[in-house]
Inverse folding.
């Protein structure tokens, strides 16, 4: 075990420790231990509900310790394309898919976006967003977008989205391709789509379905790619960089 790190700002005596950096883990199997004053316990990085339950822990782990760069990276890319197209960000009505506790929404609002709606599968995510960033969302919905009821679909459609953001949430089973397709189709034709995804999920060897979906969207004329860049999403527990792709495009027509 690596030396434990200082207490998390904004929390009460929370200590965090990472595994020995000499040990390598698959990205969806990485873990850490945390002590909130009643002993150490192990939590997987993808056990988001447990992380959200401790105020400030998500930011401390992923943004301070592991140096996550995804929200500011994709937000800068989107803002540059909006400026190039002469679009006022205040006119965007964004569906923030896999919203978590609102970090991406905070970036969007800081860039001038006027209306952001969060959607997440976890009730704990909504609770954390309302606790940590109550001012960033016009609404927040806890929904399973792989199995929307007619009423839920109508509720989402009522927001009249003209943009979709999905950051650090695709792949690893958290948001499957079908859910991304559902969210994509809620955006008006001509609207903006901004997302990040690990490089491997766009490769020919991908078995998740994302590579095939993106290929279908682009080659089928449903998505016009405006900008993309490869960047360091964060570091792994070994200290090695994890490369992701940030993509910004315009939705031209619904996905099949």
């Amino acid at each position: 075990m690596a030396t434990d790190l200082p207490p998390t700002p904004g929390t009460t005596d929370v200590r965090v420790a990472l595994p020995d950096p000499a040990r390598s883990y698959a990205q969806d199997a990485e873990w850490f231990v945390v002590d909130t004053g009643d002993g150490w316990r192990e939590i997987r990085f993808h056990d988001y509900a447990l992380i959200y339950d401790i105020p400030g822990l998500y930011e401390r782990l992923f943004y301070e310790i592991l140096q996550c760069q995804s929200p500011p990276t994709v937000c800068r890319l989107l803002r540059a394309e909006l400026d190039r197209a002469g679009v006022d960000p205040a006119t965007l009505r964004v569906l923030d898919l896999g919203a978590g506790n609102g970090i991406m929404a905070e970036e969007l609002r800081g860039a001038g976006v006027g209306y952001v709606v969060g959607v997440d599968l976890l009730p704990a995510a909504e609770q954390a967003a309302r606790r940590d960033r109550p001012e960033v969302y016009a609404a927040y919905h806890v929904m399973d977008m792989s199995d929307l009821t007619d009423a839920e679909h109508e509720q989402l459609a009522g927001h009249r989205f003209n943009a979709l953001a999905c950051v650090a949430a695709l792949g690893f089973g958290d948001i499957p391709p079908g859910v991304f397709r559902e969210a994509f189709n809620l955006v008006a034709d001509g609207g903006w789509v901004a997302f990040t995804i690990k490089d491997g999920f766009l490769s020919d060897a991908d078995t998740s379905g994302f590579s095939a979906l993106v290929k279908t969207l682009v080659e089928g004329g449903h998505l016009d790619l405006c900008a993309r860049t490869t960047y360091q999403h964060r570091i792994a527990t070994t200290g090695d960089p994890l490369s992701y792709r940030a993509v910004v495009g315009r939705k031209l027509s619904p996905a099949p």
